[in-house]
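Hey, weird one. I pasted the Retrotransposon Copia-like N-terminal domain-containing protein sequence into the form twice and got a warning about non-standard characters only the second time. First submission, copied straight from the form history:
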Amino acid sequence: VTTICLTKENYLPWSAAMTMGIAACGRIAYINGRKPEPAETSGVWDIWFLEDNQVKTWIVNSVSADIQPFILQKKTARDMWVILENMYGQKKKAIRTYQQMKTVYELRQGNLYVAYYYGALKAKWENLDYYFDVTWHCPQDQALYVAKEWENRVFLFLAGLNDEFE
C-alpha cells in the first residue's frame, strides 16, 4: 500500500500515504470507523473479517519492528489505526511539538543543495504546522501571526545555510 515504513518520527507522511493507499483499495472504511464489525452470525461477517485482516496486514507490514508489538494483537484495523494515531499523531502532544521544533532548529544545509535544504526545511515546517493547528478568532491577528512566522522561517533558513552564503 505504501513504501513508507512508520517510525517514531514520520507519522504524518506515513498516515497520509497509508490513507491514500487504503482508500485506493476501497478499504478506507476499515480505518475511519465507518465499517464496524458486524455480528458473527450475520451473512457479511466472513467478508468483513477477510477485508479487515487484509487492512491489518497492510498496517503491520508498514510499521517498523519496534512499533509492531503495540498493534499486533489488536482485534480490528480500526483499533490498530487509533493506537498509532494516539501514539504518534495527536495534535496537542507537547512532546511531539518539541521534537518537531527541535528538528527544525537543528537542520543545516550541510552537503545538501540549497533547493534540497529548503525542501527538507519546508517539510519540517509543515509537520510542525500540523501540531500548531490553531483556530483564530480574529483574522487580523492571524494575518499578523502568519507574517511574523514567515519572517522567522526566513531567518531560520538563512541561519542554516553554509558559511559560503554569508
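That's the output from the first submission. The warning seems to come from a hidden character in my clipboard, not from the data itself. Residues 139-160 form the longest helix (22 residues).
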